[in-house]
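re: that chain from earlier
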Amino acid sequence: MRQQIAGLALAAVCTFAVGCSTTVDGKALMAVTMVTAGEVTAVDGSQPAVSVESVCVHGDSPGAVQLAAAVRDRLKAVGADIRAFC
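^ sequence. v structure.
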């Protein structure tokens, strides 16, 4: 069964994603994949459908500024709608 999961924070997804990258580029790629493909691979190997309305990068995470910039740059490159969340 596929679940719809809306508004996932990147850190939360990394908690259950298989092989969540430890690199800024790898995490940014995962975020873009969630937005463009609408799925993420869970620890049990399933690929639940996700409906991503926002991507949150926690400011207290190591490398948060670099990660936010990488996610923004990759999302812009694929034509995603980038705007402030409020």
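Confidence is low (pLDDT under 50) at residues 1-9.
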